[in-house]
Amino acid sequence: DSHIQYERVGADVTMKCGSMDWDAAVTWTANGTDIDESHLNGSYLILKNVNLTQSGQYSCYEGSSWHLKYQTYLRVGTPPKEPLLMCRSNNYPKGFYCSWHLPTPTSIPNSFNISVIHGTKEMVCEKDVFLKNRCHIRYIQLFSTVKYKVTLTVTNALGKNSTSLTFDEFTIVKPDPPESVVAKPVPNNPRRLEVSWQNPSSWPDPESFPLKFFLRYRPLILDQWQHVELSDGTSHTITDAYAGKEYIIQVAAKDNDIGTWSDWSVAVHATPWTEEPKHLTTEAQITETTSASTSSFMPPPTTKICDKGAVVGSGAVAARWTAGLVLAAYGVLFI
Amino acid sequence: MAAADSPSAALRRCDLCSRGIRLAGKMRSDVVDLLDAYVEQQGLDTSVSVTAVEGVPTAAVERWDEQSGIQRLLENLAAYRAFRALLAQMLEEQREQLGEAHADAALGRALAAVLLQVSAFVYHLEELLQLESRGPPSEEGTGAPPSPHLTLFERKLRGLRVLQELAQWAVRSARDLRQLAKLGPGSSLAPSLAESP
Prior knowledge:
Chain B: Keywords: Cytoplasm, Developmental protein, Differentiation, Growth factor, Neurogenesis. Chain B: Belongs to the CNTF family. The structure holds two protein chains of two kinds. Chain A is mainly beta. Chain A has one helix at residues 312-333; strands spanning 2-8, 13-15, 26-30, 33-34, 40-41, 44-47, 56-62, 68-77, 84-88, 95-101, 111-118, 121-123, 126-127, 134-138, 141-142, 148-156, 159-167, 179-186, 189-198, 211-219, 226-230, 235-238, 247-255, 268-270. Chain A folds into three domains: 3-77, Immunoglobulin-like (Sandwich); 84-167, Immunoglobulins (Immunoglobulin-like, Sandwich), CATH 2.60.40; 179-270, Sandwich (Immunoglobulin-like), CATH 2.60.40.10. Chain B has one domain: Growth Hormone, Chain: A.
């Protein structure tokens, strides 16, 4: 008859061929392949210091008749280490969820049992529909000072382990990041970017439980972020962007009163509005420079402006030279 | 007195709610700082789990989202009147414990500041109830309960409990006032006929 046998990595395993005597002539196979006689002690199969690759189906056949006398499925694995448990409320005040996983795989099936105690009351943790290592708890009370204690026990055929978390209602509140972050240039404003976003869809009641936001932005060419904290609203205009530089922008959210900041949102990129380079004809129109500003690179002003009455030939050369300067300047700008 | 559902009353309610929310936020921030100072000065440990103490209002509530506006106001008012008396008692005990000179130390001043904010909040809640033509209930029996010969350690634990629950209440109150503010002009804070007892 076939059954499953669990053994620890590194163990020495002895398999008997069912009810066959020790001195019976038998053949052992592993996953259909004959096992060398050097692993046999009489009719017993000896596997020393087993490893994960030795998991498989082991069968024992009577020597002459090839009748199957014994079959087992060997699963080599490890007892569970202390599991990693986290609990979080991203949908306050509805409830919270707890997720867990093992730091290293055991290679054999594990079962998990979770208990959630609030004061003296045991609470139900409903299994997640999609994720097998997560369950959800509904808040029965709000604004409680009594802590929650969550204990997770993981068990497999080779042992068990457990861990506990104790926390209060407020400390685990952490919204999901803001959604639909959009950044757009503002027409005719070379230093502005308009950023907007939405509350995370998992936050059930932003009107009664408003979120505040943290926006960070930097030009791609720099490492240092600038930050803005916003106590209300889901939009902000950046007014100190470097002209013509591409920016990376992210937003995070937090309940106005309790808990911790969300992770950063997906990053969006945007470049402030820039004036279209003018088409150059026989006479170049030199763009006016702004007053000295460290935030934008502008082509240096030429000392000579072409006269309209200038000779065509020399004027054209001067126009082409000036045009070349302007184009070279824009070329550097967009590197 | 304006009718509870008149536009001017609704505006006044909105204004009181907004200011109340800001006051609750400031109060919470100060109470959290006070709690840290209290724990340190009294030689306590915040991991100590203090069970419910008689007379200290508990912020914990079930079916919070189903409460009517009036219920929210009445529960808040009862709680903050109790906190006002409890904080005054703590301040007095502080003075007795440390002597008049030391009572003005930072902790004493912080306690007094929070007491002032709690008193201001009580006033806010009373005004909101006046707007509902309910008038605030009388203050009989809202003083601090007589402390039956508490030891010094028991007083410290009670003080810890007071501040912990006040910090929770400050969060709850901001939420309660936002719920009230959500009700537009013309809405009554009273429960519907189906809800009223």
